[in-house]
Amino acid sequence: xxxxxxxxxxxxxxxxxxxxxxxxxxxxxxxxxxxxxxxxxxxxxxxxxxxxxxxxxxxxxxxxxxxxxxxxxxxxxxxxxxxxxxxxxxxxxxxxxxxxxxxxxxxxxxxxxxxxxxxxxxxxxxxxxxxxxxxxxxxxxxxxxxxxxxxxxxxxxxxxxxxxxxxxxxxxxxxxxxxxxxxxxxxxxxxxxxxxxxxxxxxxxxxxxxxxxxxxxxxxxxxxxxxxxxxxxxxxxxxxxxxxxxxxxxxxxxxxxxxxxxxxxxxxxxxxxxxxxxxxxxxxxxxxxxxxxxxxxxxxxxxxxxxxxxxxxxxxxxxxxxxxxxxxxxxxxxxxxxxxxxxxxxxxxxxxxxxxxxxxxxxxxxxxxxxxxxxxxxxxxxxxxxxxxxxxxxxxxxxxxxxxxxxxxx
Length: 410
What we know:
Blueprint: E1 3-6, E2 16-22, E3 29-30, E4 35-40, E5 45-49, E6 54-59, E7 66-68, E8 72-77, H1 113-121, H2 140-155, H3 187-202, E9 205-213, H4 215-232, H5 239-252, E10 258-261, E11 264-267, E12 273-275, E13 277-279, E14 282-284, E15 287-288, H6 296-312, H7 317-320, E16 325-329, E17 348-352, E18 356-361, E19 367-380, H8 386-401, H9 404-408
């Protein structure tokens, strides 16, 4: 029985993907549930498995093609079925439908499927729409904004303010240089760039800094790491201390755990902490949920599990959905200090950094070498006042320098 392999539902708000890699070629035998193709969305990578055993008889969407949910990827036939010549290995523009309700405007065949559909259905001229996407590409958001702006101008009074000027045209392509290598940005990398820029454009981001003496935590880990691992089957790392310290500080300064929704502030009485993880494809932020109700061991297990899934490309949309606050550890890469960018719609992010031995003046006036770490909290000043941000970071510092506070709840 032949099967059609289509793009599965990719998660909330995700409607498009890029065909990243085919694991099988036309004519090859396929086992039931064997991965056929890897799709890359703007958040995660997804493997599409074979629904049954058989032969891959046709590949419809080649590597690099942009496809929508429900689009046909390939056809699977019975074992030994006759194969069909597949499309070219490089992405090509989709051919125009045989009987389209309206002719596609010039240049529309070079657009992403969803954008092209909007252009054709609304009889728009692609050249008249500002190309706000990466590399001077049109995006669905850009088309919607153009249509809304045009509607407002048509419906408004004669003296309505003109539309803002279109952004400057992208610079002409650079001449090829044999010493350079050009690699197309992945969908995930493009999405990271867009989200970070959106955060800077929409939030009033400030950063406050402090430093923490890591002596107490390092002594505690050295004393209990063997027994902790023997009992719980997981190493006692630094991150669980930071997660617990963040939860305690979020309870004391609830504005840091809030977000803006229109003209309202949403204060969240739960603590789902995103832990930024670096992968070869880019930065991802899986979420450890209900951290206030979890032990150090449970938090360490979840973080370790997410790290493995991230390295293997197995993170799901559910793993990365939500989150009320984020912790990013640039220290694993050697960063001494940085200003992290918030992860919208969250209102703040904590940046950890490298622990360094530095001379410190002790309370009795003596000078001693202490393992010190700089901390940074970037926050949205529209929600969080400067005093609240400083108080929040000080409470994290106090909890880390005296870990007994985390177990006693003081």
